[in-house]
Structures are given as structure tokens and as C-alpha cells.
Amino acid sequence: VLDALNEIYRQVKGVALNDNISGVPVSVYPNPASDNISFTFRTKKTGIVKLSLYNELGQSVESLLDESLPSGIHTSHADISDLRAGTYFYSLQTGDGLMRGKIFVK
């Protein structure tokens, strides 16, 4: 099942799940989560940062962040209480690169 989802996601988004394309490290806490979740990451240079959530079909569920941030360590907090229980995928795009991973909503 995971291989099939990975292939669907690769076709829709152009990369596989958990592809750390640029080495941008992301810390997600708590995971699994039910109400709120935090994404902590570092940017090496000032630039637009986009953080988005997708469902298992690769459909965009929510845009969590889309703004210019200075270089440094950042934390984005998100209210996920309106999401149904299940597996979701995040995409973090910065001027440094792209990171994708999964979160679990309980």
C-alpha cells in the first residue's frame, strides 16, 4: 500500500515521499498529533518559505505557510483539529531546497 501511495505521490508531485531533496532538516512535533502540530526548520538565506499539507491522494489540504523569512531557525505552528484522522504529507520548500515527509493525525 505504501509503495502504491508513494508512486501516486511521485506522479502528482514529482518526488517520492520522504525525499529529502536538499537536506533541509525538519522537526515535526508531536507526531502523531490531534489538535496542534509544530514544524521546526532552518533556512540558510532569506527567502520565500512554503509549507503545505496533502492527503494520501496528493491533494492539497492546507497551506500552512507562504511568506518570506530571514535566515535562521523557524517554527510554524498549525491547528489541525479540523483534519480527519489519518496520514498526511507535508512539503516544505525554501530557498535552500525541498523536504517532504508525513504526519499522522489521530
Number of helices: 1
Distance between the termini: 20 Å
Strand arrangement across the biggest beta sheet: 4-3-6-7
How many strands? 7
Describe the global form: globular
Question: What are the secondary-structure elements, in order, as H or E?
Answer: HEEEEEEE
**Main sheet: strands, sense, barrel:** 4 strands, antiparallel
**Mean of pLDDT:** 83
What does this structure look like?
The protein is mainly beta. It contains one helix and seven strands. It has one helix at 2-13, and strands spanning 26-29, 36-43, 47-54, 60-69, 72-79, 86-94, 97-105. Strands 4-3-6-7 form a four-stranded antiparallel sheet, with no helix packed on it. The chain has a three-stranded antiparallel sheet with strand order 1-2-5, with no helix packed on it. The longest helix is centred in the N-terminal third of the chain and has 12 residues, at 2-13. It is globular and about 35 Å long. The two termini are 20 Å apart. The model is unreliable at 13-21 (pLDDT under 50).
Summarize the structure.
This protein has 106 residues and is mainly β.
Topology, please?
Blueprint: H1 2-13, E1 26-29, E2 36-43, E3 47-54, E4 60-69, E5 72-79, E6 86-94, E7 97-105
Antiparallel strand pairs: 1-2, 2-5, 3-4, 3-6, 6-7
